[in-house]
């Protein structure tokens, strides 16, 4: 049995990953103890490769030897495993479906769109900016004047999106845009989320993220 497989609850993760941060936030909201295992993504551990043989990616939550992959899937697994603690999805079926829809939109759009902002230049970057702002405006429209995406309750959509706010400084610096100017309602929402201990302890310093992005740009030869 590989090291770590026989532990109670183990999270295979990487510090700057917004996907892993979702899992950390969900576990913190539930008050669940677990072992955090930092992965070297340039030299992935045998445990990671065995636990996620399809995608070979973090995060992976290993629950007494049983691996659960893909961040939103993990968050919902956590919610279902510990249903009596801080529900992350509403009880109403329609509200649950809506939450899953918006979380899925974040999943499919945010990372790819944000990555283009620091990878591309010129006209391609300008097009990426338009796409990114359009996505943020869609999300801002859904948030409206609510405290959280689910109303008064912090939940799945908030967890899906809030890790990317740690990347906003990098997006803005690389692409010369202002998320506050474009989507002013998302800024106080992000602040409210960061006031939660589960979020503040899970998200990295935006300046550290920017240092990481600068490192990636050097790796990819982007100047």
TrEMBL record:
<dbReference type="Pfam" id="PF00043">
    <property type="entry name" value="GST_C"/>
</dbReference>
<dbReference type="InterPro" id="IPR004046">
    <property type="entry name" value="GST_C"/>
</dbReference>
<feature type="domain" description="GST N-terminal">
    <location>
        <begin position="7"/>
        <end position="86"/>
    </location>
</feature>
<dbReference type="InterPro" id="IPR036282">
    <property type="entry name" value="Glutathione-S-Trfase_C_sf"/>
</dbReference>
<dbReference type="InterPro" id="IPR010987">
    <property type="entry name" value="Glutathione-S-Trfase_C-like"/>
</dbReference>
<dbReference type="InterPro" id="IPR004045">
    <property type="entry name" value="Glutathione_S-Trfase_N"/>
</dbReference>
<dbReference type="InterPro" id="IPR045074">
    <property type="entry name" value="GST_C_Tau"/>
</dbReference>
<feature type="domain" description="GST C-terminal">
    <location>
        <begin position="92"/>
        <end position="212"/>
    </location>
</feature>
<protein>
    <recommendedName>
        <fullName>Probable glutathione S-transferase GSTU1</fullName>
        <ecNumber>2.5.1.18</ecNumber>
    </recommendedName>
</protein>
<dbReference type="InterPro" id="IPR045073">
    <property type="entry name" value="Omega/Tau-like"/>
</dbReference>
<dbReference type="GO" id="GO:0005737">
    <property type="term" value="C:cytoplasm"/>
</dbReference>
<dbReference type="InterPro" id="IPR036249">
    <property type="entry name" value="Thioredoxin-like_sf"/>
</dbReference>
<comment type="similarity">
    <text>Belongs to the GST superfamily.</text>
</comment>
<dbReference type="InterPro" id="IPR040079">
    <property type="entry name" value="Glutathione_S-Trfase"/>
</dbReference>
<dbReference type="Pfam" id="PF02798">
    <property type="entry name" value="GST_N"/>
</dbReference>
<keyword id="KW-0808">Transferase</keyword>
<dbReference type="GO" id="GO:0004364">
    <property type="term" value="F:glutathione transferase activity"/>
</dbReference>
<dbReference type="GO" id="GO:0006749">
    <property type="term" value="P:glutathione metabolic process"/>
</dbReference>
<comment type="function">
    <text>Conjugation of reduced glutathione to a wide number of exogenous and endogenous hydrophobic electrophiles.</text>
</comment>
